[in-house]
Design brief:
mainly alpha; 2 helices; about 90% helix; about 0% strand
Length: about 50
């Protein structure tokens, strides 16, 4: 796996962790925002890899 792809995936995982923490707190707008950011970064990683 390319280094840049690994970086995108690391950042995506971090956004997902934040989304999960916000969900536990009932902060659903933040969950949506961080989930979206996580998915976007995951897709960038996939595109970068291929």
């Amino acid at each position: 796996m390319k280094k840049e792809t690994e970086n995108w995936l690391k950042i995506a995982r971090n956004d997902l962790k934040i989304a999960k923490a916000l969900f536990k707190e009932g902060l659903y707008l933040g969950v949506i925002e961080h989930s979206h950011a996580s998915l976007e970064k995951l897709l960038k990683g996939i595109i970068n890899e291929y």
